[in-house]
């Protein structure tokens, strides 16, 4: 194990960390940053349940309805790396506050939208400002909790909030849609933003990477266009993998990302220092995060469809029906947090995905006339236990050993992995679903529900397979002693080998 630290950056980051983390104040900082993460994550799912009502009121086409979801993830994932570097260079607190203001304004615009186009634009703007807010928040967490048990606890809380946010979004979306209006699924962000903005101004201490900081504009352009083309290509794949448009955008995205890697290996101040992702352990953590993002978005979306379309749950009941998974995460996370320093992250990252996969395989046994209590509830509890074991160590591991100068870029990569993984995974799972449904002859309502559950089951099996792959990745990439995988002393930039 070797250390690699930028002297000026480390000095600045260390000083900022000590200032921010003094006394009990840093735990209030954790509350503020966790609230930010909750807003960012739940906005990926809160509109899911509201989409039927929004489609009817605004006259959305099916394509526009899809883009209400995709626009957020696409803008978010494509701009996260640039947002991370802006946070590092311009100031993490300043970037965080600007992101909060913009996110709140975009949410208000979306809540007042009068057309499908306005709603899609608002969702895209939410993604743009989330790309500033999210990496700044995670970087602030990194320099606030630098090592030891407190860092493990802080990242466990942060990761648990991130994991539960998708389910919280579904519940909150159901409550707002049924008792208020679908527009409140966007407007609800405004009071959250105001609280986070005021608390952030009072509690958070500024930190940034000092020295010769230049923006890598060519890198920013190629990675944004590359990720955008890739996600768009996978989105178009829902209508056919062999179409010229699908192949063209996927090829363009791959080519631009290859060009991005070449640029990053040549420029003096790269947008994403390759040392952040080429580290074996950290690179493995990013890959696992991509799979986690794909599973959470894909599984929860098709579960929502099953609850509302097949089982006939109204919006509120559909949202509440997902709550057991969140409760299982909340119960399991403290246990996993206590186990983390004893057994290390590797065991949790190997076993957790396998447990979650069992839950999804169980969920794949759904039938049109099945019972929620028998076919769905046990699966959600098992899934929650497995995902909690993933959420607790993954954020910590993805940022372990990152020099303070690279904190924004690394946290942006962690967030981008979740968002891009979710976008790509949803497209793949949708293709699996469509293929399964196409094999069922529909002659009446009963056979239509059979087709739906056949498609949902296929999608759940696909997500289970993805989690098995995540477990294999943990075996291959997450290597080393538990002491080397998690910071326990005052080291600030340990590069794991």
From TrEMBL:
Keywords: Cell membrane, Membrane, Transmembrane, Transmembrane helix, Transport. PROSITE patterns: MFS (PS50850), SUGAR_TRANSPORT_1 (PS00216). Residues 29-482 form the Major facilitator superfamily (MFS) profile domain. CDD domains: MFS_MMR_MDR_like (cd17321). Residues 1-21 are annotated as: Disordered. It is found in: Cell membrane. It is a multi-pass membrane protein. One of its GO terms (cellular component) is plasma membrane. The chain crosses the membrane at residues 27-54, 66-84, 96-114, 120-143, 155-176, 182-203, 215-234, 246-263, 284-307, 319-340, 347-366, 372-392, 413-436, 456-478. InterPro entries: EmrB-like, MFS, MFS_dom, MFS_trans_sf, Sugar_transporter_CS. It holds the Pfam family MFS_1. One of its GO terms (molecular function) is transmembrane transporter activity. This is Drug resistance transporter, EmrB/QacA subfamily.
């Amino acid at each position: 194990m070797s250390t690699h630290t930028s002297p000026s950056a480390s000095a600045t980051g260390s000083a900022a960390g000590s200032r921010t983390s003094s006394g009990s104040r840093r735990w209030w900082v954790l509350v503020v940053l966790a609230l930010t993460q909750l807003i960012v994550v739940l906005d990926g799912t809160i509109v899911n349940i509201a989409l039927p009502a929004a489609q009817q009121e605004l006259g959305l086409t099916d394509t526009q309805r899809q883009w209400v979801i995709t626009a957020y993830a696409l803008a978010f994932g494509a701009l996260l790396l640039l947002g991370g570097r802006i946070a590092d260079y311009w100031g993490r607190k300043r970037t965080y506050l600007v992101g909060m203001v913009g996110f709140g304004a975009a949410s208000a615009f979306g809540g007042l939208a009068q057309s499908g186009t306005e709603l899609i634009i608002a969702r895209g703007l939410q993604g743009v400002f989330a790309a500033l807010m999210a990496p700044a928040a995670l970087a602030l967490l990194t320099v606030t909790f630098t090592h030891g048990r407190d860092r493990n606890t802080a990242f466990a809380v942060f990761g648990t909030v991130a994991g539960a946010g998708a389910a919280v979004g579904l519940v909150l979306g159901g409550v707002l849609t049924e008792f208020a209006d679908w527009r409140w699924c966007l407007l609800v962000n405004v009071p959250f933003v105001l609280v986070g903005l005021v608390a952030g101004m009072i509690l958070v201490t500024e930190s940034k990477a000092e020295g010769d900081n230049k923006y890598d504009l060519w890198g920013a352009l190629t990675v944004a266009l590359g990720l955008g083309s890739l996600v768009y290509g996978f989105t178009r794949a829902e209508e056919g993998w062999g179409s010229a448009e699908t192949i063209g955008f996927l090829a363009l995205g791959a080519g631009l990302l290859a060009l991005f890697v070449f640029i990053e290996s040549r420029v003096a101040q790269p947008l994403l220092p390759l040392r952040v992702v080429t580290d074996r352990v950290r690179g493995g953590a990013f890959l696992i995060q991509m799979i986690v993002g794909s599973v959470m978005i894909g599984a929860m979306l098709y579960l929502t469809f099953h609850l509302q379309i097949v089982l006939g749950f109204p919006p509120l009941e559909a949202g509440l029906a997902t709550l057991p998974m969140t409760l299982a995460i909340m119960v399991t996370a403290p246990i996993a947090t206590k186990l983390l320093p004893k057994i290390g992250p590797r065991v949790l990252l190997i076993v957790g995905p396998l447990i979650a996969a069992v839950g999804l395989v169980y969920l794949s046994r759904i039938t049109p006339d099945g019972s929620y209590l028998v076919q769905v509830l046990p699966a959600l509890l098992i899934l929650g236990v497995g995902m909690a074991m993933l959420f607790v160590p993954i954020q910590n591991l993805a940022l372990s050993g990152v020099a303070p100068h690279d904190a924004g870029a690394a946290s942006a990569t962690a967030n981008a992995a979740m968002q891009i993984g979710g976008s790509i995974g949803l497209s793949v799972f949708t293709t699996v679903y469509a293929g399964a449904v196409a094999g069922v002859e529909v002659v009446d309502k009963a056979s239509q529900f059979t087709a739906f559950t056949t498609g949902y089951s296929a999608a759940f099996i696909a997500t289970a397979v993805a989690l098995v792959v995540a477990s294999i990745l943990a075996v291959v990439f997450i290597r080393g002693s538990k002491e080397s995988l998690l910071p326990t002393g005052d080291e600030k930039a340990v590069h794991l080998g």
